[in-house]
Design a protein that fits this description.
This protein is an all-alpha fold. It has one domain (14-34, 48-187): Orthogonal Bundle (Arp2/3 complex 21 kDa subunit ARPC3), CATH 1.10.1760.20. It has helices at residues 14-30, 50-60, 62-80, 83-103, 115-145, 149-189; strands at residues 35-36, 45-46. A two-stranded antiparallel ribbon has the order 1-2. A hairpin with an 8-residue loop joins strand 1 (35-36) and strand 2. It starts with 13 loop residues before the first helix and ends in a 6-residue tail after the last helix.
Length: 195
């Protein structure tokens, strides 16, 4: 539907798109800071690349957060050729970012996301990401590592579940701290029409 000026309404303006591109670039760089959390499964690594995507979801909505993460993953896959890892990351990112982006749509009087909404968003996003990660591991890990499905199932309780809990906790704590420190700046670039 056209506006009174005869142009289609834009989802994001140029400044917001540039900001999103900058967030995607930061996310790409952070994706190469890989930290193995469990020696028994060195292929399971934590990286802080979700943090800029969370900021994007808070500022511009869940779709923006997913796009930022997608761009970062594509760049990472292009360099590392780890296609299966990229697919897993995109699926987990969307599961995590959509609840956070929706939680960020409602602000309090000073333009910040309330602590309650942050807790709810991080809790739902974390639970969704853990479920997607565990299901995805049952499909992707046998292909990626060549390990039999039975051995992957046996890893769920001692390795996969603790790893993913640790991962969402790190993502959530770091993201919450970063958000609290840049909330005013982030709100400046946010859009009421983000979707």
């Amino acid at each position: 539907m056209q506006t009174s000026q005869g142009t289609l309404p834009a989802r994001w303006n140029t400044q917001q798109l540039v900001t999103m591109a900058f967030m995607a670039a930061i996310s790409t760089v952070l994706s190469f800071i890989e930290i193995p959390l469990f020696p028994a499964a060195p292929f399971l690594k934590y990286d802080p690349s979700f943090v800029p995507a969370v900021m994007g979801a808070f500022a511009f909505g869940p779709l923006a957060g997913c796009i930022i993460s997608f761009v970062s993953v594509i760049a990472h896959v292009f360099i590392t050729s780890n296609i299966w890892g990229g697919i897993m990351t995109i699926a987990c990112a969307c599961a995590y970012l959509v609840p956070l982006g929706l939680a960020g749509k409602t602000r309090n009087s000073n333009g910040h996301i309330s602590t309650v909404r942050l807790i709810v968003g991080f809790s739902i996003g974390s639970l969704a990401m853990i479920i997607v990660a565990l299901l995805g591991n049952l499909v992707v890990t046998p292909i990626y590592t060549g390990a039999p499905l039975q051995s992957i199932i046996a890893m769920i309780i001692p390795i996969l579940l603790p790893f993913n809990i640790a991962k969402v906790l790190l993502n959530s704590i770091i993201s919450a701290l970063v958000y609290k420190s840049i909330a005013v700046l982030l709100h400046k670039y946010s859009s009421r029409n983000s979707k």
